[in-house]
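quick one, two chains, predict together pls
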Amino acid sequence: MIYEHEIPTGSKLYFGKSAKLKREIEGVASKTFEQRGFEEIVTPFLSYHQHGNIAEKELIRFADGANHILSLRADSTMDVVRLMNKRLGRSTTQDKWFYIQPVFKFPSFEINQIGAEFVGAKSLSFGVDISSIIFNEFELTPLLQICNINIPNIIAKKFDLDIKIFERGEIEKLFCLGVPWLDGLIKTQSLEQLNSVINLAPKEIQNELLKMREMDEKITYRRVVFSPLYYARMRYYDGLFFRFIDKNLTLGLGGNYECDGAKSAGFALYTDAVIDTILKK
Amino acid sequence: MLSVALPKGRIAKETLDIFEEIFNKKFVFEDRKLILKTSGFKFLLVRNQDVPSYVLHQAADIGVVGLDVLEEKEEDLVRLLDLGIGRCKVCVGVKNDMEIDYSLPEIKIATKMSNIAQKYFSSKAMGVKIIKLYGSIELAPLVGLSDAIVDIVETGTTMKQNGLKAVETIMESSAYLIANKNSFIEKKEDIISLYEKISKVI
């Protein structure tokens, strides 16, 4: 039985204080992006292009008039980048875009996001800087976690390990290898620990650790930890990435990626998690 | 302070024994209390199957739970260390005079571990109908509710006493120290320090 007033599990309802807060966060974000040369893009709710980026079982799917599969937007990044490249590519020099729109996941999840894509970005630091300006406006100080997905990938290949060991954080299996620099990576959290392990690690790992340190040097946000072995299945982030966490929530996430041959960087703030965190302060 | 979710019963007792050995002091829950705060830890006594939920939602930073529960729940958690306690097997059991008949179009399995059972028979290209039960699993094949069961076997005595035998082992299990993913990032130093202390005594 479905009640008249029932809302589907995972969908979002904001009213009064929380709706006002949502609008304020989006307002601050929009102003911050515009001041930094970003232009807004609003992409269609329905998309033909979600397949390949997202596991099919996560999509809310339909068929169009010709029985082609289309789905509710489950991710904004690839649609934004492809639209910029294919439709606007020749007619604009604009390479920085932001969006404020929800994504949808099967069966009835609705996730409000504020995100930005920077085609050709040399550094990921813009994502941390803009996020921290927005967090600061609402007196939030989440923990910034700097990661590099190349490190677990290189180690998995070097020692012939299943990448799931990193995904599940099975440190027992890594300690068992008895490799001092790997023990150092497992324990690394602070800049001092990162610097120590950079001196111990083999060249290919050292290069990736230096990228993490370079990113830290480019940002002003200071509540930072380094997680060189953190691994999560990413849709497209293929190198450095970051997460802002507060207790059990991820407030934001960003990384480097390549789309249609263009090296780019992007990030998204999870508006619902940001609202939740502010309201529970 | 680290909060620790422990499964009620023998595994909680054995885990607290490990803590006693490390910290050289008693770790005992008072009477029927479910929370014990001592020596920088907050222990929570919860149902075995609920440990992953407490840790996933960060009501506890770390927890102790069987590998079988982790495989069944498939939650996004950090698996820190095999504690080597609570050893058991997840087995397929049938009546003493029966064998698993893979020529059947479908097999009926009674279990509380529906994901593990589903995956196991799917991997053998066997159609399976899962009947989810919450206890007295051994009864199901005896009264014709199922063809077989998938259940935890420690000594095999319960199955034997009910006229059943374990015919296939799906997995071996023991209790793991687990952590919440964000707690492992934020409290890494404390969690790894505890990991190292436990590793030395098990």
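Chain A touches chain B at residues 143, 145, 168-172, 175, 186-187, 189, 225, 227, 230, 245, 247-248 (CB under 8 Å).
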